[in-house]
Amino acid sequence: MADKDGIKVAKDYHVNEPFANMGDFHVKGANALDWGMKKHLSRIFDPQTGKTVMFAFDHGYFMGSTSGLERLDLVIPKLAPYVDVLMATRGALRTCVPASFRNGIALRVTSGSSMLNDDLSHEVVAVDIEDAIRMNADCMAVQTFIGADGQLSSIDNLSRVINAGLKYSIPTLGVVAVGKEMERTDRFFKLATRILAEMGCQIVKTYYCDNFEEVVAACPVPLVIAGGKKLPEKEALTLAYNVIRGGAAGVDMGRNIFQSPHPVEMAQAVRKIVHEGLTDKEAYEFYSEATK
Length: 292
What we know:
single chain, alpha/beta, TIM Barrel, two-stranded antiparallel sheet, 12 helices, 14% strand
């Protein structure tokens, strides 16, 4: 076992050097994966840009009815044309999302306490691999609590989902959870994202932080960055721009889309940053003109 007291903090992340094992595939760290895995990843990450706009509306699995998501059956059809991936629970997908939609699917497979509990870090695997296959999920999302009381059980959840996913060629999306008592520093995110990648996740969802380029460089799989709490539209677009400029493979703006007064136009503006290379200023100008 490695002696943690002897570990030296890495100083050079070679942030200006591209990932060395890309091969001829457009997703970081996926060059050696099988055809089935690559097919799913190609539905998540656009083959032309290598990036994704993910839209999470799985908040109801612990929050119940959420502002902006009271009527999933009305909201999702309006936003689906402008996002690449829908991230949701199986209940929301089966009841409110038409099977004719062509979006990628990130299926939430863990669950736990509700917002009525102080501790959300003790989750279980609530969806088995057979149902993920039946739903034609493109990846399975697992909440992981590094540094929290539920770390061991959440890593056990993650490992079991990864093992099942490898058996049936379905990628696993490891979601870095950040609780009230957990730090939001580059040191923490370098640790958490690297752990999830080395466990075998094909994608990691995390948060933006200082020295973000180093977090990206140190993680050998693509990072999708969560928007977090609702921000003013201009600030949210600046966040999306900084994330992509910093090397992330995509964004999941969630609340910053569905709680915007103009969610469709906001989704379009985010898409223009991620896939068309617009700056945050240009995207906000688009949003402002589109919402006049």
